[in-house]
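Input/output pair, single chain:
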Amino acid sequence: MKSLLENTKILVLIIALFVVCMILFGRTDFLFFNNLFVIGITSFFIMGILVYRPMLGFALLISAVSFEILTVLPESIGFSVRPYQILCVMLYFAIVGLYIRKNVSVTDVRAYVTDAMVVGLLVLSGVVVQWAQDPSEALRQMIVVGSFTAIYFIVRFFVREFHDVIKILPIVIVSGWVTSMYAIIQNVLFLHGGDHQEFMPGRPNAFFAEPDWLGIYLVFVFATCLTYLYYNAHHKHVWKFFDVTLWGITTTVVVATILTVARSAWLGMAIVSTLYVLIIFVMHKYKMCAQHVLWLGSVMTVSIVIAVFLPITNFELDNRIQSTSGSQEITVSCLQEIGRDQLMVQGEIENVTELSAYGCRHINLEEINAEKSMGHSVVTVMRHDPNIAVRAKTYNHVIQLIQQRPLTGYGWGSSGALLGTDEQGTPLNASNLFLETALSIGIVGAGLLILLFSIIVLRSLIVMHQAHDETTRSVALFGLLGLGAILVPNLFNAGLFLGFVWMFLGMVAILCKKM
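Output:
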């Protein structure tokens, strides 16, 4: 059953081709079938293949988690089904086929404590529906939680040993690399007036709902690259991504992360890098630590040079970094010079709504030439970063709401109705994974999530200390780096309902296995 994962060369080629095809299909709306009969016949045919080649379906499932906004059903149905969700359903039927053919046994799968936490989150999501702000939406979101729970247990079924995790890493890396390439191409298309399909012009989102979600995913891929770098350093005798190839892939991932302009992702990447170097140093692997610091330094340096000096973004990246201090530089166009001069004397504004008093308005970078051609004065001015103000206000509001319903919450999907929208009209969330969970399913749900993450950290440290081989130690390292990659950006976001998060949880559950 695991023969496919043994041939890494063939596998990564299949995965790369699959992800490229998915990108092409997604851009041409090929995945939006109009005929349910065609969907049924295609699904039945694929499911028949997976009964005999389940590992192929599992590999495709792992690589499909980056396609968050694609759906395989026609829009007239009224709800969406992601490619990885339908692959998950097919794999469950394939597993039933394996049991019927007696290729596997129920006793082959062991229960771990993390399973109870995941099931607990699902059960709690259903229980709080009756108290939800919008019961129908909460019920719909509970079904979504159920689909992610299904992904977790599918991964649990296929990951039985520590070396199974290592075999999955190349799939994650290659699919993440192709996604990164597409994100870069997406931004280049935007710069040249092509069909970029970006939700926020100038910030690629690939096939995620927003650039910040893509950023979190890329940080996770980056953590996977570092894990594989460590593993390769101890397994020179097996075929692997050669160091130069892994270096190139990691550089591509970092460049794409920079282009997302997601500061939470930048912070996550910095902390994951620091954590990786610190862990190796604590292991007393000083020579490796020095080598990998140079490796990481060259990746970061080249990535920054590419992002800054090549024509792949018009975003003022230095200004984005500067905005972490609380202010950011924006470009404005003024109808008259007197208004411009008064604005320059003012020096800094609280909100873009103040610009109208000076006869000015906030413009995007691509509008500069057009504004100048009309005789308008284009200048830059400092503005208090609205994200910081909105986030602080949101945190206070969320805490007050949680205090009103600490046990039941308001149901998944209620944050937009409760918190309102931002300046662009986008529904707000709690801007923090744990606050969002507590707001949705109560403090017990947030406690379960914290306990789940704590178990992963604790088991990773224990396994890393007790392991007698580098394969097992690499999996423990992946547990720490992967969790850091997901957790750090989510301190400023609420990205729990992302397929790769639950895939990761299923992969590292093996850390709970007795040594």
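The two ends are 24 Å apart (CA to CA). Residues 162-314 form one domain.
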